[in-house]
Amino acid sequence: QVRIVESGGRLVQPEGSLRLSCTIPTSTFNQGTVGWYRQAPGKQRELVARVSTRHTTVYSDSVKGRFTISRDDDKQAVYLQMNNLKPEDTAVYYCNRLTIPFDWGQGTQVTVSS
């Protein structure tokens, strides 16, 4: 069973920055696109960024230009650098493989508030 672990979330002021980290400990990590998702209170989980095996990145319109996703296949890790954070970025952030996702981790809470 693959146990996904996300970390790095905390309370941050608007316009601040955070870097989230995630490990997906599987020998197949380097074979698939991975992404960061988020779920705000009362809303469905949404995909905000993804990175392919060739390091091609795609972002949702809501985070484009502010967030940067990256991956380290040697560490089986994926990262999300978040800059110029806004209150509407407040959510629990999760990572997972896009195709045939694993069981979800516990996520990491990001709260943007003054």
SSE pattern, N- to C-terminal: EEEEEEEEEE
The average pLDDT value, as a whole number, equals: 96
Low-confidence stretches: none
Instruction: Please bin the fraction of helical residues.
Output: under 10%
Largest sheet: 6 strands, mixed
Distance between the termini: 39 Å
Number of helices: 0
Strand order of the largest sheet: 2-10-9-4-5-6
Number of strands: 10
What is the SS-derived class? mainly beta
| Rg from alpha-carbon coordinates | 13 Å
Notes on the protein architecture:
There is one protein chain. This protein is an all-beta fold. The chain has strands spanning 5-7, 11-12, 18-23, 34-39, 46-51, 57-59, 67-72, 77-82, 91-97, 108-112. It has a 6-stranded mixed sheet with strand order 2-10-9-4-5-6, with no helix packed on it. The protein is globular, with a radius of gyration of 13 Å.
